[in-house]
From TrEMBL:
Histidine kinase domain segment(s): 303-483
Keywords: ATP-binding, Kinase, Nucleotide-binding, Transferase, Two-component regulatory system
EC number of the protein: 2.7.13.3
Residue ranges of every copy of the Cyclic nucleotide-binding domain listed in the record: 26-134
Residue stretches spanning the membrane: none
Database matches in InterPro entries: cNMP-bd_CS (IPR018488), cNMP-bd_dom (IPR000595), cNMP-bd_dom_sf (IPR018490), HATPase_C_sf (IPR036890), HATPase_dom (IPR003594), His_kinase_dom (IPR005467), RmlC-like_jellyroll (IPR014710), Sig_transdc_His_kin-like_C (IPR004358)
Molecular function as annotated in GO: ATP binding
Protein name: histidine kinase
Domain of life: Bacteria
Enzyme class: transferase
Catalysis performed (reactions): ATP + protein L-histidine = ADP + protein N-phospho-L-histidine
Natural source organism: Paractinoplanes rhizophilus
């Protein structure tokens, strides 16, 4: 935020009489003695048009009541000042409005910047005097207000912590589910591989015991390597093509009395072997007596290669999941760093794959030319998790999830869209409010978008907005590509 100095305007003590104070709705029910005390401890201040009365983030040390003029309150969102209130109502108040709360070690700061849009006059009290007055005169009200404020703060903290634990549990369960599938596949493949290798040893012993000429045995070993190489280069077949190939190979083996030929046909078809290859095998084996054993031996070799490929794919999947989990958690990275936003988006998709399911199509429209941005990647991953999870729930398991990245001026924009029913116009302004949720009781705390908003806006100096209509809802997160200026 650019530096903007406050205009120091003299405050005139005793400029308002008790009778004049009673005309302000805030003080109209007070006693004469109370009004006299306020008049003695307050002052009036005149601010010319355009002057900055208070600035967001500064210590909240004064309480203001508008006497005349027009003022505007603004909040800083990213690089922009967003006007939240504009009023000329006499008697409205702002500034150190919570100075009556007990000192809990949290610094009291102005929550907005106030400017005078035209010449304005204010009644001013120090935060200390205003807080003393409230605590002494209205002790029961202060207890109620403190209970409400502190209770909401405690509730928010407790629910936020529980939400994080629940989200962590859900992610962990999903990750374990994702890890279990390839791990189980690798285990099954390893067990089958042990059986196939034993079968190969058995067949090799039978071939050797059959007094196979040395040249034939060498040719058979060479044939094994040729078959495996051909299988590695074979094009993928459709389900229909595979079935047709199995029928052809099964009939060929049946005609030659190959034992269990129809079972072997599936292995050879999956390995990309066709009739021409079988004819070549028959020619190179030479002896019809050895063909059955040679076919079985080659079948074991093919299946062994396929099982090793399955194990490699499964263990590779496990490794990718572990890497995605490390990327998501950022457990071995600095808290703040320059990052490519696509890494976090991809790892979040992996972590939420179990929630996305098969009924939702994921579209990734990424601009790979985007520059790196300064960020807290673990916090941004929490934002992506909340937005993607909300999108998936909105679509109820069926639809299209679109993740798009692009540059907009000096910002990187991440858009997360869904084809769900959308957010009604009357609710759009409330989606970022704490505890507000449209989900059924027990399914949402109303803190996900509030946390995301604070991470993006307060933590990264960016912005997050919602565009929604039925069938097309987008949350757009704008993140600056440069470090925010020092305050």
């Amino acid at each position: 935020m650019s530096e903007e100095s406050l205009t120091l305007v003299p405050c005139e003590p005793g400029a308002l009489t008790p009778a004049e104070l009673r005309t302000l709705f805030l003080f109209e029910k007070l006693t004469d003695d109370q009004l006299a005390w306020i008049a003695a401890h307050g002052c009036t201040m005149h601010m010319p048009a355009g002057g900055v009365v208070i600035r967001e983030g500064d210590p909240a040390d004064q309480f203001f009541v508008l006497l005349s003029g027009t003022i505007a309150l603004t909040r800083r969102v990213g690089q922009d000042d967003v006007e939240t209130t504009r009023t000329e109502q006499r008697g409205v108040y702002m500034g150190a409005t919570q100075s009556y709360l007990r000192d809990d070690g949290i610094p009291r700061k102005y929550m907005a910047t106030m400017r005078a849009l035209d010449d304005s006059d204010f009644f001013v009290m120090s935060a200390a005097d205003f807080g003393h007055m409230m605590r002494e005169w209205f002790p029961m009200a202060i207890h109620l207000l403190e209970g409400l404020t502190l209770g909401m703060r405690t509730t928010a903290a407790a629910i936020s912590e529980r939400q994080r634990l629940t989200a962590l549990g859900a992610l962990s369960a999903g990750l374990m589910h994702e890890l279990n599938n390839p791990a189980a596949a690798a285990s099954r493949a390893a067990a089958a591989l042990r059986q196939r290798v034993a079968g190969m040893r058995h067949k090799l012993g039978m071939l050797a015991a059959g007094k196979v000429p040395t040249d034939r045995l060498i040719a058979l070993v060479d044939l094994q390597e040729d078959v495996i190489e051909r299988a590695a280069k074979a094009p993928a077949l459709t389900a229909m093509e595979t079935a047709d190939r199995e029928d052809e190979l099964g009939e060929w083996m049946e005609e030659r009395n190959v034992t269990g030929g129809w079972d072997l046909a599936a292995v050879f078809a999956q390995g990309g072997i066709d009739i021409d290859c079988l004819n070549e095998i028959e020619t190179r084996v030479g002896s019809p007596d050895l063909l059955d054993q040679a076919i079985h031996w080659l079948g074991y070799a093919l299946e062994t290669e396929q099982l090793m490929s399955d194990i490699e794919d499964a263990t590779g999947r496990v490794s990718n999941l572990v890497n995605a989990a490390k990327q998501y958690s950022q457990m071995d990275r600095a808290a703040h760093q320059w990052i490519d936003v696509h890494g976090g988006l991809k790892s979040t998709l992996v972590m939420l794959n179990h929630k996305i399911g098969t009924g939702i199509r994921v579209v990734k429209d990424f601009d790979r030319t985007l520059p790196q941005i300064p960020a807290h990647p673990a916090e941004l991953n929490q934002v992506w998790t909340n937005l993607i999870d909300n999108a998936v729930q909105a679509m109820n398991g069926v639809g299209t999830l679109t993740l798009r990245t692009y540059r907009e001026g000096d910002h990187v924009v991440v858009s997360i869209g869904d084809t769900g029913p959308g957010v009604p116009d009357e609710l759009k302004k409330r989606v970022f409010e704490p505890f507000f949720t449209t989900k059924p009781v027990g399914e949402g705390t109303g803190l996900g978008l509030d946390i995301s908003y604070r991470i993006v806006v307060n933590g990264h100096g960016g912005d997050i907005v919602l565009d929604s209509e039925p069938g097309d809802t987008k949350f757009k997160v704008r993140l600056p590509i440069t470090e925010p200026a020092s305050a």
